[in-house]
Amino acid sequence: MAVFTLGALTTVPVSARPALVAPPVWQAIEALGLQDAVGVVEIDPPQSDTAATQQTYGLDATTLANCVVVAGRREGQERVAACVVLASTRADVNTVVRQRLDVRKSSFLPMERAVEETGMEYGGITPIGLPAAWPVLIDGRVAAAPAVIIGSGIRRSKLIVPGALLAQLPGSEVIEGLAS
């Protein structure tokens, strides 16, 4: 059973509180058999933003990970990917992500589209439960982390998962130097 403690946060297995994750996140967790491998903790929604979570719960920035959605076009075709990087870093959207997507220019997906296409709340987007066609690019430091705090698909909770588990999600690719 996944019970993690980071800073002032202690999780319960997501199987004990499935209502604390967005529906597509729960569906993916169930389909992958991760109900007892992923921890969830309820938080105050105004504390959901990374900096607020870090300060409120006494966390090191290297234990928090952000999931951002990036898109670009090539020959009229849009290419979308999710990038998971530590909160202490920034995804290299203009070089590494652009090259991986093989597009001329990449940029963050507009908030409204990201929310609509993921079925998750802004500020809570997580790599678990994203559209299957999207590659999930994971910075090597995230994959190597014993556990990271990520969104749960909603703003009133967070997931704590081993970095190695994120690296094994369908469609995931670990990319060294994805973030700087």
TrEMBL record:
Residues annotated as domain YbaK/aminoacyl-tRNA synthetase-associated: 45-167
Name of the protein described by the UniProt record: YbaK/EbsC family protein
Entry superkingdom: Bacteria
SUPFAM superfamilies linked: YbaK/ProRS associated domain (SSF55826)
InterPro entries cross-referenced by the UniProt entry: YbaK/aa-tRNA-synt-asso_dom_sf, YbaK/aa-tRNA-synth-assoc-dom
A Pfam cross-reference name: tRNA_edit
